Amino acid sequence: MFRAHIKGIATLAVSLLACLAAGNAQSARDTETPESAKLNSAAKLIAGLPAPSASQYAFARTPAWKGHSEFMRAAWARLNGRQVAAMTAWHNAELSQTCPAGRTLMYPFSGPDFFNAYWLFPKCDTIVMFGLEHIGEVPNIEAMDERALLLLLADVRAAMTSFLARNYFITGSMAKQLRTSQLHGVLPVFMLSMALTGVDIVRIVPHELTLAPRADPVPEGKPMRDLKGVTIEFRAPGSIATQRVHYFTVDATDRGLAHHPEFLAFVRNLAPTTTFIKSASYLLHGNKFSQMRGALVDISDVVVQDDSGLPYAMLEKLGWRVKLYGRYGRPIPPFGGAFQGGLDRAYKAQQPAPLPFTFGYQYRDFRDVRSNLIVARRTVVTAQLQASEALPNPRAVR
C-alpha cells in the first residue's frame, strides 16, 4: 500500500514536471517577436534545418538546399555523436551542474566557437568571447536571389568544414572564409551554431563599451582591429530564461589594448569568472599579451583549458590547484617551441586517463587519444571546495 502510494506521488510529480516543461516551452514560443522569428528562420536555413518562414519554402525545396542540408546534418550528426554526450557527461562529473565560478564564462581568443562554450558551460548566464574575426552582419535572406543564397550556403560549408572535422577553427583560414561576397563575419556562424544546438535567438544588438578615461596619451599607430562588440541573446530549449553572448572584435595585444583601455576595464569588471581557453595558438605564453594574461589570472576563479592557455608554470607558482585530464605531448607544428616541461612532469606524476572526447590541437582523427585538458582552481576556491567535501586544506604555495 505504502509503495503504491509512493508510486502514485512519483507519477504525479513526473506529470507536473512534464506539464511545467511544456508550459515553459510554450511560454518561450509565445514571447517570440517578428525580429526573433526572422533571425531563427535565417539561422535554420543556413544550418540546413527546416525553416518556418513561408518566404523560404520555395528555396528549401530546391535540390541545392537539400544537398546543403544533407551535408550539414551528416557533419553535425558525426560531431554531435562523438563530442556532445561525452563532453556533457565529463562536465557533469568533473565541473558543476551550474556555472563553475560566478555567472560569466570568459572565452578569450574564441572566434565564433559557441559550440564548445555551450556544450561545457550551458548554465553560465553570460558568455564573453573575443577574437580578431570581424563581427559582420546578419544575412538578409529575404533580399537574396537564388544565386546569392547558393553562394552563401557554399561559403558556410567552407567556413565550417575544419571545425566540423576537427572541433576547432583555423584562424588563418577564417580571415578569408568569413569575408566573402555573401558571408560577412562571425554572426552567421554564431547563428547556425545556435540553430544546430537547438537554442532560440531572441535578438542581436550592438554592444558599445564606455570609454575609459586615459591617464596617458593615445599611442602612435593603429591597432590590428578597432574595437567593436555585439550581443546575442538566446534561450535554451524549453527555457524562459535569457542568456547572452557578448562577442568583441579586438586586438588583445598589449599594444592593441593601449588603444582601447575600455576593453581591459570591461574584462576586469567581469570577476569572478569561469575562464575557458582552447586552441589559443599559445598566445598567452608570449610577451605581447601580458596585460590580458594578468587580467585573466585576476578575474578567474576556475580555469578550464588545454595547454595553449595560461602557462602551467604560472598557475603552479600562484599555488592554484591543478587537475589534469587526457594526454600531453609536444605541441603540433608550428607550436613546437611551446612545449612545457613542468606540465609534462605533472602529467607523468598524475597519470590521468585519456579524455573521452577530442579537445585542442592534438588531433589526427577521432580515434586519437592525445587531447589534453587542464582544470585549475584558485587557492581560495580550492579551500571552499575542500571544506564542502570535508577534506583538509592544501598547503598554500606563495
Characteristic terms for this protein:
398 residues; alpha/beta; 9-stranded mixed beta sheet; 9 strands; disordered N terminus
Structural write-up:
The chain is of the alpha/beta class and 398 residues long. It has a domain at 35-303. The chain is built from 14 helices and nine strands. Helix 2 crosses helix 8 (187-197) and helix 4 runs parallel beside helix 6 (146-166). The radius of gyration is 22 Å and the shape is globular. The protein starts with a helix and ends in a 10-residue tail after the last helix. Mean pLDDT is 84; it is low at 1-25 and 387-398.
Number of helices: 14
Structural Rg: 22 Å
Beta percentage is 5-15%
Q: Which geometry do the CA atoms define?
A: globular
Say how many strands there are: 9
Q: Which stretches are poorly predicted, pLDDT < 50 over at least 5 residues?
A: 1-25, 387-398
Return the structural class.
alpha/beta
Please summarize the sheet with the most strands.
9 strands, mixed
Mean pLDDT: 84
- Which strand order do you get reading across the main beta sheet? 3-4-5-2-1-6-7-9-8
* Secondary-structure element string: HHHHEHEHHHEEEHHEHEHEHEH
Please estimate the helix content: 40-55%
Report how far apart the termini are: 62 Å
Outline of the structure:
The chain is α/β, with parallel strands linked by helices and 398 residues long. It has a domain at 35-303. The chain has helices at 2-30, 34-47, 57-60, 63-94, 114-120, 146-166, 171-177, 187-197, 254-259, 261-268, 290-299, 312-317, 341-350, 379-388, and strands at 104-107, 126-131, 200-206, 228-235, 243-249, 273-277, 300-305, 321-326, 372-377.
